[in-house]
Amino acid sequence: MKTLRTPQHRALVAELRRVRLAAGLTQAVLAERLGVAQSFVAKVENAERRLDVVEFANWMDAAGAFQQCADVLARVRNGATQA
Q1: In this structure, what are the phi and psi dihedrals at residue 73, rounded to the nearest 5 degrees?
Q2: Can you say whether the dihedral through the CA atoms of 62, 7, 40, 27 is positive or negative?
Q3: How far is CA 32 from the centre of its chain?
Q4: Around Cβ 62, how many Cβ atoms within 10 Å?
Q5: Rounded CA gap, 69 and 67, in Å?
Q6: Do the Cβ atoms of 27 and 41 come closer than 8 Å?
Q7: What is the pLDDT along the chain (83 residues), one digit of tens a residue?
Q8: Are residues 75 and 66 in contact, defined by beta-carbon separation less than 8 angstroms?
Q9: If I label 79, which of 1, 16, 33, 56 is the partner at 20 to 30 A Cα–Cα?
Q10: What are the φ and ψ backbone dihedral angles of 50, each rounded to 5 degrees?
Q11: Is 22 in contact with 15 (CB distance < 8 Å)?
């Protein structure tokens, strides 16, 4: 099953970006915290790359939002995001 560009994937991308911005982080700072290149963050946020569950957990942790994982996943499951 392909998951790129499905409504749920678009919701996940929007949530990941929302979480990063709510934490006041640039792509570069989040990338540094993750130990990856800034282009990795950009590709995720541009829906060019999927995250596995470990990468998702690391993203949330690096943004200081690990406790919000379940809430984010619930919004993704419903294909909806918070503004």
Answers
A1: -65, -35
A2: negative
A3: 15
A4: 22
A5: 6
A6: yes
A7: 566 678 889 999 999 999 999 999 999 999 999 999 999 999 999 999 999 999 999 999 999 999 999 999 999 988 765 44
A8: no
A9: 33
A10: -90, 160
A11: no
The pair of structure tokens assigned to 5 is 């560009």
User: What three-state secondary structure class fits 32?
Assistant: helix
8 Å CB contact between 76 and 69: no
CB 23 within 8 A of CB 64: yes
**Which residue type does 10 have?**
R
**CB contact set of 27 (below 8 Å; sequence gap of 6+):** 20, 38, 41, 42, 45
Question: Letter for the amino acid at 44?
Answer: V
The answer to whether 83 and 19 are in contact (CB under 8 A) is no
pTM comes to 0.88
